[in-house]
Design brief:
This protein is an all-alpha fold and 358 residues long. 76% of the residues lie in helices and 0% in strands. Helix 3 crosses helix 13, helix 4 runs parallel beside helix 8 and helix 9 packs antiparallel against helix 12. The longest helix is centred in the N-terminal third of the chain and has 36 residues. It is globular, with a radius of gyration of 20 Å. It starts with a helix and ends in a 12-residue tail after the last helix.
């Protein structure tokens, strides 16, 4: 094995560790924001604590998941058909998870205890369907354009423009077309992560993967430092903007091109900081735990929603701050145990595995 191959292997391993740490932190931040959203009293949600919580659980979570996923879709050796099957599995898995996490709520609706529309919960456009659609789209683009960078870059402004231009498929909010549209675009309340504009982030990760692998000579130290400095200045002077968008859930879920650019700058600084932390404290037990969570992120994601979603029906927005903190610690502990047991005893035996590309 020659020196260049060894160096490439080391860099790949470092990138994987950074990706796992980013995903591990993202899932922890996601759990805390779900607790604040669903368990904590409304006064806490509206307070500075709630604002910080939603910011921490905002740009460092879903955009990170999607960008990392896009990065590895390009590196994947799977065929278009294999990736399409993978994407469909994600979409179907997301719908099944919707039923699982809302099972307590759906039972109470069925028993007549609650008078709310169950279909908004069954067909919620959350992150797994987004991931599935994104994998299919990226695999399709990869099949057509392969390593040609220009079409992928051109696709970014097209996605942003389409987010504003696409018309509603129906004026009836309960039309089947409205439920289908929710997964792609629009502002209905159960459309959390529509394909437009959220496909931007897996596409960005995909583009960065192409550049890193095929055009690495562009990524010299001077360029990296320049991008980091510019991104840092942007974040420093616009942090309040990011806080405000993250705290307004409708604005966050259906954000515009300005926030997309802000998130890109944030991700540059975030990944730089994570790389630095790994270099300085990579063997710390906390980082080991977080990278373990990152390696098992889809299982963690599924289990945390099954736990939080079903408990939330009973304690919705009734918990004090201290009780919310206790819930967070308890849920992370229980979910970690579930994931450990699943990984140790069930993962190899089950036909359907949590092998989704998050």
């Amino acid at each position: 094995m020659n020196k260049s191959t060894v160096d490439s292997s080391i860099k790949t391993k470092e990138r994987n560790r950074t990706a796992d740490l980013a995903k591990g932190l993202a899932i922890v931040f996601m759990v805390q924001v779900h607790v604040i959203e669903l368990f904590a009293e409304q006064e806490i949600f509206k307070s500075a604590v709630g604002k910080i919580s939603l910011f921490v659980g905002g740009p460092s979570c879903a955009p990170v998941f999607m960008a990392v996923m896009g990065y590895f879709v390009y590196l994947s050796k799977k065929s278009w058909a294999e990736n399409s099957k993978r994407g469909l599995t994600l979409i179907i898995g997301g719908l099944i998870l919707n039923i699982g996490l809302n099972l307590h709520l759906l039972i109470r609706i069925y028993n007549g205890e609650l008078d709310i529309n169950p279909w908004h919960y069954v067909f919620g456009a959350d992150i797994l369907p987004l991931a599935g659609l994104s994998v299919i789209a990226l695999a399709f683009l990869k099949k057509i354009f392969n390593k040609n960078l220009i079409p992928y870059i051109v696709a970014i402004p097209l996605i942003l423009f389409l987010s504003h231009l696409l018309p509603d498929l129906s004026n009836n909010p309960e039309s089947p077309l409205t439920y289908i549209q929710a997964f792609f675009y629009g502002r209905v309340e159960w459309s959390y992560f529509p394909f437009f504009p959220w496909f931007i982030y897996p596409l960005a990760g995909f583009i960065f993967s192409i550049i890193s692998k095929e055009y690495s000579y562009f990524l010299n130290s001077k360029l990296k430092i320049t991008v980091i400095i510019i991104s840092g200045i942007i974040i420093l002077f616009t942090l309040e903007y990011g806080l405000n968008i993250s705290h307004d859930l409708q604005s966050y879920y259906h954000h515009n091109e300005v926030f997309v650019l802000w998130v890109f700058a944030f991700l540059v600084i975030w990944i730089f900081c994570l790389n630095f932390l790994l270099q300085k404290a990579g063997n710390n037990i906390l980082w080991k735990y977080l990278t373990w969570l990152g390696k098992n992120v889809t299982a963690v994601y599924v289990f945390q929603w099954l736990v939080i979603g079903n408990i939330a029906t009973s304690v919705y927005k009734t918990q004090s701050l201290i009780h919310s903190v206790i819930w967070f610690i308890g849920i992370m502990s229980v979910v970690s145990i579930f994931v450990y047991l699943y990984d140790k005893y069930l993962a190899e035996k089950l036909t359907i595995k949590f092998s989704f590309p998050l």
